[in-house]
Write a structure and sequence with these properties.
Strand content: 5-15%
CATH superfamily of the largest domain: Tetratricopeptide repeat domain
Distance between the termini: 11 Å
CATH architecture of the largest domain: Alpha Horseshoe
Order of helices and strands: EEHHHHHHHHHHHEHEEEE
Number of helices: 12
Shape: globular
Radius of gyration: 21 Å
CATH class of the largest domain: Mainly Alpha
Number of strands: 7
Number of domains: 2
Length: about 325
């Protein structure tokens, strides 16, 4: 299953996946295009309002240049300096929200937009962007509520309609994926799971080809996350395929909730028996999509092909990864 990013103002942001290729190539493409689209979406907020930075010595072009380069920490310093001189500059306020999201400070971005909705009650962008921040954190119920409120107050604001629809698709996709893990032979459920995934792929491909998209580079923090995820996926697949149980289980947190909500102990016992019984195992993952939520949690969704001398299948799969501290190894905390 794929997680599409919300449309913020009038530009769409999404995670772009590739159906073939090595894991590293796939993840690099996913992360890079995620930030390209997300940056384009949030930069469009500043273009939409075009509010001059009255009393501010630096121009908006300075900030946007840093944003396009992925130098978000430096851009935030300039934005904060500008807001110190004029705390009501709407252009700088919306740029700040964009930067916080790109720095993965989603909890802070959420609190920022909650306040901004109160400060800018006559503008639809803060309300819509608050909903987008909820969606990025996988708070889908809150996102649905926020987008509905935006539509009720600003019925001509098109982006909120698209975001609401995308959120419903994501909710449906999650349910289809969860159901298919309980019954891998349920053809209708599997077909709907694949269809919802393809729906989001088409949507993000359309958004990636949009003439309004701006090219930008990922931040250093995003590059490090990309590298860590690449290493994690390669190691996880290799250790599973090699049937090295200790190395394979080392990818899972002690608090992990395994597939179908089995206890971790029962899951490991069953998995060990399968690994020991198989003469060979081949794992292939494709159509990878990644969404980073708050507090160092990452969701990875993909199509998984499993083959052994005893069994073979292809089905959607979701891994939720977490790290206890910045820079520490990712571990699987949930598998669906």
């Amino acid at each position: 299953m794929n997680l599409t990013q919300p449309r913020i103002s009038h530009s769409h942001s999404s995670l772009v996946t590739s159906p073939t290729g090595k894991i590293e190539t796939l993840v690099k493409r996913v992360i890079k295009n995620k930030l390209v689209a997300l940056s384009a979406a949030l930069i469009s907020i500043t273009l939409l309002l075009g509010v001059p930075a009255t009393g501010f010595s630096n121009t908006g072009e300075d900030i946007e240049t840093l944003i396009k380069k992925g130098e978000f920490d430096a851009a935030l310093v300039i934005v904060e300096d500008g807001l110190a001189e004029n705390q009501n500059n709407e252009k700088l306020l919306l740029q700040k929200g964009f930067i916080l999201i790109n720095l993965q400070r989603l909890d802070e971005a959420e609190a920022f937009y909650v306040d901004l909705v109160k400060r800018m009650p006559d503008q639809p962008e803060p309300m819509n962007n608050l909903g987008a921040t909820y969606q990025l954190q996988n708070k889908l119920t809150a996102a649905v509520r926020q987008f509905n409120e935006t539509i009720q107050k600003f019925p001509d604001f098109v982006a909120a309609y698209e975001n609401l629809g995308d959120t419903y698709v994501r909710i449906a996709a999650n349910q289809y994926a969860a159901g298919s893990t309980l019954d891998s032979n349920h053809k209708t459920l599997l077909a709907k799971a694949r269809l919802s995934h393809q729906f989001q792929l088409v949507a993000q491909q359309h958004s990636a080809s949009s003439p309004g998209a701006l090219s930008t580079s990922p931040s250093k923090a995003a590059e490090k996350i990309k590298e860590d995820i690449v290493n994690f996926l390669e190691s996880w697949v290799n250790d599973w395929s090699s049937r090295e149980t200790d190395r394979y289980f080392a990818h899972y947190s002690s608090e992990c909730i395994p597939l179908a909500n089995k206890t971790l102990k029962a899951w490991k016992k069953r998995k060990t028996a399968i690994l020991n019984a198989a003469k060979y195992i081949k794992i292939r993952i494709q159509e990878i999509s990644i969404s980073q939520t708050s507090d160092g949690v990452v969701e990875i969704m993909f199509s998984q092909s499993y083959e052994s001398d005893r069994y073979s299948s292809t089905s959607p799969k979701k891994l939720v990864l977490s790290r206890q501290t910045p820079g520490s190894p990712f571990l699987i905390i949930r598998e669906e």
